[in-house]
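To the wet lab folks,

You asked to see what we're planning to order before we commit. Fair enough. Below is the target structure as tokens, and below that is the sequence we designed to fit it. If anything looks off to you, flag it before the synthesis order goes out.
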């Protein structure tokens, strides 16, 4: 059993502005999570949030930048678990930016949720992306 999250959303902002929000650590921290991100293939970084023991997550997402095409595509691995060294979620998050009608079509693809527990996690993540994360991104874009 595997489930993927795919969300497309139009933002009335340039691809340069959306790219800036996706790749500037301080901005990324405002709408997503605290991080030590660098848009460099091979860079290992973490997202950090409050731990959620009830869903076996220590509050850290362990990532590696897999692909960078400036203002077009960004992909990184996304791994997490109940404690350092124990990974029970191994997925990939890809952002694709397409210029469109005085703005940007942003496609989020979070792929690789395998197994029943991760299937359930993907449903929670998708809801979070739609109801919180992408709305916070829009607010940050308005401020740029």
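Sequence we intend to order:
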């Amino acid at each position: 059993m595997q489930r993927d999250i795919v969300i497309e959303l139009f933002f009335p902002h340039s691809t340069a502005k959306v790219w800036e929000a996706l790749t500037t650590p301080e901005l990324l921290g405002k709408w997503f999570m605290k991080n030590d991100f660098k848009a460099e293939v091979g860079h290992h970084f973490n997202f950090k949030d409050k731990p959620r023991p009830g869903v076996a997550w220590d509050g850290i997402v362990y990532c590696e930048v897999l692909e960078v095409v400036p203002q077009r595509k960004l992909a990184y691995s996304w791994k997490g678990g109940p404690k350092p060294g124990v990974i029970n979620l191994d997925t990939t998050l890809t952002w694709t930016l397409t210029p469109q009608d005085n703005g940007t079509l942003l496609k989020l693809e979070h792929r690789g949720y395998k197994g029943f527990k991760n299937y359930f996690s993907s449903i929670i993540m998708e809801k979070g992306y739609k109801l919180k994360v992408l709305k916070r991104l829009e607010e940050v874009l308005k401020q740029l």
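Structural context that might help your review: The first strand starts at residue 2 and ends at 11. The mean pLDDT is 96.

Thanks,
Computational group
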